[in-house]
Specification:
heterodimer, A: alpha/beta, seven-stranded parallel sheet, B: alpha/beta, globular
């Protein structure tokens, strides 16, 4: 196989954790598929420093662009730039994080490079097949990608984050002239607004502690009154079950599960969550799971390390103040 | 404006799946099938756009075995106008689905495509994006709000960290997220009437699309179950366990 190119996402020039995870997965793919080298492409304001950081992880060659086209993420210009960089590098494998940007852009790269994509990979098998969850996490499949060019998106909780290694690679500006379509076009669309979720808590997929609430919370106000204080006492992120999102108690951005976010914190609290398989698929790799539910037969207790059968409205505030008092 | 709504038939998420003895696939015989939940949201959104007078005609399309017909008829009963079923018994990956849909799109004049952000069986979340790239159209994926004004769509997208509002020119491809709407139920009399709506059955050959798949499942297993821990009596015992045993506090 040819080289691997990693689509490296960053926040103002700092690589995000899911990119470091993708770098680890890329190294496994390089070994198993016998790829020549790992390269990378990074875009947007701060891409030059992100490129510098990539070199610390042993990436051989990086293309970056801070062109105005990439000031905000948009699917087509990003897709075209990634495909252009892949062609320049002679890469036949494109790897990226399966976060919302990766999910949105990588299939476009697959079309531009006439390849095919395996999504949300959780493991690389020695025979070259890839492990991925299907059917809301009810099934783990080994899949084979037979196209010459392969696109692989990586689940953020499935591999460890890469650590800095040998340096010695090079970086260069991505010359956009290689794709005549890479000039501002109406078709690319325009971002006309962004409503940030409450930002004083850690990002759900990065947090060490996640406190999630379910339908039993019964209202958005109760989420604020019951779930938020516990999350804040533990400096954790707030999550929600699909049922709670469906009922309008929490934004979809907080949804933990196969159709939402997949998390694997050190400590996960499931509060008033029954434990539908689609929710379990999003949190069962957490190190320690605590379940609080009134129903002793709730399936969540089958995966919880510690279960407390009680009325959440009584015990969660009690738990919060006990934790506060021990600080 | 004519709108294309692709549909996938998937196993009912409420049933307990079984695997074939050789682990090559799930047991498909005799199980209950539903419209992919995100596609059902897309059908509902198309109907609402028709009710607003933005859309004049809703065309459904699916690729799959012949009994997919009953699921398409359900969506017709919800309020879609006609359906195209590409009869195919073999495996369908996202790439093949997108090639089929691109071929159908090219044979009609559609102003827009709206479809689920992912199918709840394969969970790949690719087909809408692949289709947009193939047709060189703008995409607005993971939509929680869709507004059409003239030749432009303003779509609120559910992305990491918040809600992004993206404006794109039409025609475009929109993929639906969970909170976009709550699909209506098809009323029984409509189910009978749906059988009289235009229904076209065609083949891959007639579309000039090859049946090749590029991502194939070799084997399947159930994930290892996480074993249950223990029940604690109260908050004090819980905190003690988290501090002393699990050492996570």
């Amino acid at each position: 196989m040819g080289k691997i190119i990693v689509f490296a996402q960053h926040n103002d020039g700092k690589l995000i954790k899911s990119t470091l995870v993708a770098l680890t997965a890329a190294e496994e793919l390089r070994r198993v598929w016998g790829c020549a080298a790992i390269t990378a492409v990074t875009l947007g304001q701060g891409a030059a420093s992100a490129a510098e950081e990539l070199l610390q992880y042993g990436v051989e060659d990086v293309r970056f662009s801070e062109d105005e086209l990439f000031a905000q993420y948009r699917a087509e210009p990003f897709g075209r730039a990634i495909a252009l960089a892949a062609k320049e590098m002679g890469a036949s494998v494109v790897v990226g994080a399966a976060n919302s940007t990766g999910k949105d852009v990588l299939p476009r790269v697959a079309v531009l490079l006439e390849g095919a994509q395996a999504s949300d990979i959780i493991g690389v098998n020695e025979d070259g097949s890839l492990k991925r969850p299907m059917y809301a996490g009810n099934v783990i499949a080994d899949v084979e990608v037979s196209s010459d060019v392969r696109i692989v998106s990586i689940r953020g909780t499935a591999f460890s984050a890469a650590t800095p290694g040998t340096q010695g690679g090079a970086k260069a500006v991505l010359e956009l002239a290689g794709d005549a379509e890479l000039v501002e076009q109406d078709r690319f669309g325009k971002i006309v607004g962004f409503e940030q979720s409450k930002a004083d808590r850690p990002e759900l997929t990065d947090a060490e502690v996640v406190v999630s609430g379910g339908r039993a919370l019964a209202s958005a106000e109760n989420f604020e009154k019951i779930v938020f204080p516990l999350a804040d006492a533990l400096k954790g992120a707030v999550g929600a079950s699909r049922a709670a999102v469906d009922s309008g108690y929490a934004p979809n951005d907080w949804q933990v599960g196969q159709t939402g976010k997949v998390v694997a914190p050190s400590l996960y609290f499931a509060i008033g969550i029954s434990g539908a398989i689609q929710h379990l698929a999003g949190m069962k790799d957490s190190k320690v799971i605590v379940a609080i539910n009134k129903d002793p037969d709730a399936p969540i207790f089958e995966v919880a390390d510690y279960g407390l059968v009680a009325d959440l409205f009584d015990v969660v505030p009690e738990l919060t103040s006990l934790i506060e008092s021990k600080k | 404006m004519k709108i294309l709504v692709p549909i996938k038939r998937v196993p009912d998420w409420q049933i307990k799946l079984k695997l074939l003895a050789d682990g090559s696939d799930i047991q498909r015989d005799g199980i209950k099938w539903i419209i992919n939940t995100f596609d059902e949201i897309a059908v509902e959104e198309a109907i609402r756009l028709k009710e607003q007078g933005v859309v004049s005609e809703i065309v459904l399309a699916s690729v799959g075995p012949s009994d997919t017909k009953s699921r398409l008829e359900y969506a017709l009963a919800m309020g879609a106008d006609s359906a195209i079923l590409v009869n195919h018994d073999g495996p369908v990956d996202s790439d093949l689905a997108s090639r089929v849909l691109a071929a159908i799109y090219s044979r009609h004049e559609f102003g827009m495509i709206i479809m689920g952000k992912q199918a709840i069986d394969s969970d790949s979340s690719q087909t809408a994006q692949l289709l947009a790239a193939r047709l060189n159209l703008p995409q607005a994926c993971f939509a929680s709000k869709v507004e059409i004004e003239g030749e432009r769509a303003t779509v609120t997208r559910e992305v990491d960290g918040g809600l992004e509002v993206l404006e794109v020119p039409m025609p475009c491809v929109i993929s639906t997220d969970l909170r976009l709407n709550e699909p209506r139920y098809a009323a029984l009399p409509n189910l009978m009437k749906a059988k009289k709506k235009p229904f076209e059955e065609i083949t891959l050959e007639s579309l000039g699309v090859s049946a090749e798949v590029k991502v194939s499942v070799k084997s399947m297993v159930f994930p290892e179950a996480r074993s249950a821990g223990r029940k604690v009596a109260d908050v004090v015992e819980l905190v003690a366990a988290l501090q002393e045993e699990a050492k996570v506090l």
